Protein 1
Amino acid sequence: MSIIEAKLNGRTSQIAIAKKIVAAIILITMGTLPFWGSGYLTNVFLLVFLYMSIGMMWNLLSGYAGLTSLGQQAFIGIGGYSVAVLTQVYKMSLIWGFVVGAVVGVVFALVISMPIFKMNGAYFTIGTWIIAEALYIFFVKWKFVNYGIGYPITAAYDIPMWGLYLASFAVGIGSIVIVALLLKSRLGLTLMAMRDDSGAAEVRGVKLYRTKLICYLIAAFWVTITGCLLFLNQAYIVPSSAFTIDWTIACVFIVIIGGIGTIEGPIVGAVIYVLLRQILYGFPGISNIILGIIAIVIIIAAPKGIMGYLNNKFNLDIFSIRRKIKK
Amino acid sequence: MQLLIQSIITGILLGGLYAAIGVGMSIIFGIMGLTNIAHGNLMILSAFFVLIFSTAMGVSLITSILIAIVLMVIIGFLFQKFLVNAVIDKGDTPALLVTFGLSIIIQNILEIIFGADARSIRSSFATVNVVDTKYFSISGAYLTNFIVAILVIVALTLIFNKTDIGRAIRATSDNTRAAELMGVHTKFIFAVAMAIAMVTACIAGVLVGNTFVFYPYSGTQYLIIAFGVVVIGGMGSIVGTLLGGMILGLAQLLGAYFFGTGNQILSGYIFMLIVLTIKPDGLLSNKKRA
């Protein structure tokens, strides 16, 4: 081993240690936020983590698996309604809301995957949207979920703020861990081969359908869980808030602004999204217009988003998913 | 029986309106492979233009429609030239997301200016029954929709087949690179195509406003209809949109007849999903775009 190589190795290991320390500080600060921060700050970061989670999953689908969905609100609504129906109608404990929600979400994803996975590109995109819209209309007319009137979720008042925050924190950080581990795994290699040249990948034995389906199911599972928490935070659910396209709009903005196809992107995007929404709280329309303009400008000027741009410029590699050949 | 006949006739006539809604989207997809998510919002924007000119500014309805068409042509041309053309070469998703951004912007601007109230540009003629027999009746609005839709489709077919610009558009549609090599300025052709699509969107917006009430957020609903028409008829086929519109209209009205009026829209959506599943490229699709 030459001296230069040894020095380089030393430097990379120092950077690795520094990265771990910074990560630990951020995690501890964020994890203990409700015990030292104000209620307002806690609520803002609770939203950041929940939006980060749905953004991260949308990024997994659109940025890595080539599945641009505009129907993620279907899973958020399913999660919210599972919690509402089980705790309000059946008076079951909250945990069952999550369990049943996750199961229903994944089964629903599996069922709709049969038709929508036959569609390509734009057909898939709009197909997912039609399904979510159909689900909305169905819920408005469904007696079992109290039609369009919806439910208050009183179980939300039984849990303390810090409990909801920590659950959101876990879901947000969990989404990062899931996507990072997934990309480092064999499946991640498959995804990248698929993204670079799907034809060549298929010839080499990559199972495109199976790979995409696994990503879709993982995203469905995690988004449903996030949906449970989003509606516990709102404490009220109606079909128009559960299945609104606004959830997916948020995902798109978060991922585009932060950087599609990067792990850091949705984290940065979620912070910007939630802060902008808070600043323009009294003017929800204006914040959407500003986000729309920012998104168009970024797609044209910096298609890889803020983090993609910074990564290129400063050669950052925060969540390394690169593979190194063992010596 | 009476109701069934009425449902079938209304379904076919409604299909005319749906064809007018879908034809612009079909053109854009056929020519540049772009799914314009803002199509429904641009339609509703046109309806609001006509509403402003004809009520607030006191211009006659026909003049208002002409001004709105000119405005929409300019908007469509600029939108394509400066925004979509910048990303059209980078694959499907970036261009799709640009139109998505535009749709959010239009919808929210309309909501801020006009609030969430129902609007309409209904002419006195719209609610009159022009045909009224023992078995069925036809309202002025539905008949107008159907006739205008057929005129639009005939006009588009003539433009595409008989004019130079139409030939250039078809050449670009068949093979963009070859057309470019033959001296066609394809990016300009894209902008012209978007302008033509905006004329149809404007006409469709006026028809919708004359038939139903509309809200700033109605764009989504009509985007899905446009998409359904195009999916059933086959993306890029202009005559196909007429058939697609009628099939979708019939699916909705017959769905309402058999499963109750409340299920009209839901039957349309489910029918679309079934068609998408069985024939993902549409019933009349004659070519595939990669």
Protein 2
Amino acid sequence: MVAVQLNNLSKKYDKGKIVAVDSISFSVDKGELFGLIGPDGAGKTSIFRMLTTLLLPDGGSAVVDGYDAVKDYKAIRGRVGYMPGKFSLYQDLTVEENLNFFATVFGTTIRENYELVKDIYVQIEPFKTRRAGKLSGGMKQKLALCCALIHKPSVLFLDEPTTGVDAVSRKEFWEMLKRLKQQGITILVSTPYMDEATICDRIALIQSGKILSIDTPDAIVRSYEGSLFAIKSEGMYKLLNDLRSYENTLSCFAFGEYHHIAFRDKMKNYSEELLKYLENKGHKEVEMMPVIPTIEDCFIKLLKN
Amino acid sequence: MKQLFTFIKKEFFHVFRDRKTLLMLFGLPIVQIVLFGFALTNEVKNAKIVIADYSKDVTTKKIIDKIEASKYFEVEKSLKSHNEIEAAFREGKIKLAVIFPENFNEDLMHLNKAQMQVIADASDINTANTLTNYISSIVMDYQRELMQNVAISLSITPEIRMLYNPELKGEHIFIPGIMAMIMMLVCVMMTSISIVKEKELGTMEILLVSPFKPLMVIFAKFIPYLIISFFNITSILLLSVYALDLPIKGNIFLLYGEALLFIMTSLSIGLLISINAQSQQTAMFGSLMATMLPTLLLSGFMFPIENMPVPLQVISNVVPSKWFFQIVKAIMIKGAGFSAIWKETVILIGMTIFLMAVSLKKFKIRLE
Amino acid sequence: MAESVIKTEKLTKRFGDFIAANELTFDVKAGEIFGFLGANGAGKTTAMRMLCGLSIPSSGKATVAGFDVYKHTDEIKRNIGYMSQKFSLYEDLTVAENIRFYAGIYGLSNKEIKDKSEELVHQLGLEGETKKLVRELPLGWKQKLSFSVAIVHQPKIVFMDEPTSGVDPVTRRQFWDLIYAAADKGMTIFVTTHYMDESEYCNRISIMVDGVIRALDTPYNLKKQFSANSMDEVFYGLAREAKRTGD
């Protein structure tokens, strides 16, 4: 069963000068956790807004839970859950008042769907009389998620729920999404953090309104052509510069503790030659090994193509 | 229905939890009344007046002494005859005349009551009011002193006449003016800001995506400000009746009914602004430009419209406050009934329907 | 051993009963890239404000670029650069106007401003773009320009508050290239980030939990100390112990 279907969906701003979404097509199955991965300005928010009927597409069409995003907008509103990127709740209302309000607006009560949000709500329940403005970033996200879930939506749209949230809260948030998925809710989530991609069933890598690649995270990693090496030495900045000036280097960039390097000729093994080159340049304690590319490596490679 | 109720409750939370704005909303009418009612009219010092005493007895002597002792008045003694007094008034040399008729003391002693005349130049309405009030209070004072010594009740009635402006055109016009301004402020500025705030917070997106009707959002936003407006009108009227001694001459229900109409007009302006504004600042600035300035300048509240250049007079016709101002003035001061203000009422209704229609047509069920 | 450009001893900031930053003691060497990590609400912003001379500490000692944070906040401000989360550029001014503005507020003379502008524009390869409004520039350029204006007065230390959030991986790395280059020239970099992989680019990292510095070392040593495979694990292990909930 398809929960969300996009056919050549397009969106332009500024009288057509800026193409935010460039004829994008993909579909999301029921119960899937689907990630839109891309940096700021890639078009993620525009896609979400078109799917939640907040924006009219300039071209193409979209179907959400069986309804047309333009014609049947009333039917879609009410059956989808949406957490906008800049969503910040009512700061002057307490946790409980916020949740109550959104429950009523969506024509339900907290009690009716408590089971669904229970897992998340118990974590913020001790603070239910606290005003939302006084909550930490992570707490706010949890409350916002509760508010988006309270009417038991069939499809949940989360626009950059983890932006500006610290690593611990981010991890907790994704744990919650995994549990929600088990309850059969289709979840579309966007994020600029590449490391979060692996938790999704399928992802679309997106940049400048275009999809670079769309598949399961594993398949995207497997489709990476050629081999990738991690390398480090004592002087990492000098190493980066020296690696970049090495004649056989295709690309080289910092990646955490190591630098990741790919070579021009995908088949050839340059390890020995490179180590010698680095030794001549005066590098000490050079460590080099082949690594499995991450989503981020794939994204960088796709961007460079 | 329950949804709407919850929404309205939420709006009240917003209003009551923002202490500073709340204080401003309820305090502003009071501050403005006090400013316009007292500060602007008080402290008229050394006003030139004339006293014509046709009785020349003990009582008049004592009252005159008291008036002369007051720092507010400077008594011109040279003028004696009626003609002289009238000429002095016309030339603006004196602001007020006190006339004691013959047999003042005798009337007081035998009939237990006496009348005196106070004539004021009402072309300067504020000064005229203040001065006649001063005279009245001096006379009252004297009356109290008298009563302490005798057992029977004695009354001296100052009969007040306003020259040149018998209808008191322009009297207390600040009350209708303040009503118009406060309602503009509360209904236009506060509603538009509160709607735009939802846009800024991102909650508008959620509300649009919810099954809750967008129009209901607007309706729910209106209710608290409608109630606050009624509260403000009541406090303005109470202040004007009890603190400023300005009675409401006309029908109070008619007054409230017209106020409700004007609130609707203001709310539709607020809605129109909020539809076009993306930030609270824009909404605030828009409200100021669209409502406060025209209300102050073109409603006839501060500056008489008759004296304006013709183009401004024409423009003033599209300012809703002008019509409301005339309605309230007619009901409160002239005691006019609906038959006298139906034209203005129809104009306001027309404006409201037009503004509502435009804003509802422009109201977006989507983000752009 | 390089000299310390930031030195704190039991630096503390209280807000009433709440201790936002509790007895922070650390030093940062010249030319070092110092990562300042912590969950939301751990006290990073408070600490950074004290070091930038924007907030007077409640107790403890600290010097920044050799100046005391209690007495010489003006001198500190002259010797540091600051770059915040979103780029502090004026979108409705042109590239040249932005540079001129920032150079101007740091009191550079007209000649210096002119020379510096030309140098910067040349360095960034923006020769053809000086008359363009900043909002017309692609994200990557904005970020580079933003960093360049933050160091236009050649400060000893640059404080950066999540400079790369929401930026694509390529631009993010290009940005770190700039940071490396600046550090290589002896500038000290004090940076906060939510990207754990970026923390690995730092020479040393401190991790704050509930107002206290819980760990401070090189990424390599930290991983060894906490027997973790990645900085992500180190951070998660420490930060989950946090009891505070407020921002």
